[in-house]
Amino acid sequence: MSAPTTPEEAEPLERGPAGHALFVPVRPGPAGCTTRFFRNALGGRTAVAFTSEPALIRALGPDQRWMRLSEPALRALAGPLGITEVRIDPRLSAPAPGPGPALPQAPHHALVGQDRF
């Protein structure tokens, strides 16, 4: 039997190489949940999954939504987007950058009484 290549071929709870269904971070979208993809240290896109809900919460926080998927199902979702890397139980994650500090405004000086060329 060959590995599933499309989301339709992959059973959501089939046993994959990780041994069981994984906890995959998702975000809400207009058509339902969408798998979240991340960037690795070199800037490449990667899918992430966790072997337990506590592991997901430790890395991404208690408000992160998730769904259960097998590794082959996750790869089938990521593949058409050109994402081939799947990280299971990543230990390090950085929060999304927030707004930076406000930049000081440059003083605005009116040119009064001077010739402009």
UniProtKB/TrEMBL annotation:
InterPro entries listed in its UniProt record: SAV_915-like_dom
Region (Disordered): 1-23, 90-117
Name of the protein: SseB protein N-terminal domain-containing protein
Organism annotation: Actinacidiphila cocklensis
Species lineage: Bacteria, Bacillati, Actinomycetota, Actinomycetes, Kitasatosporales
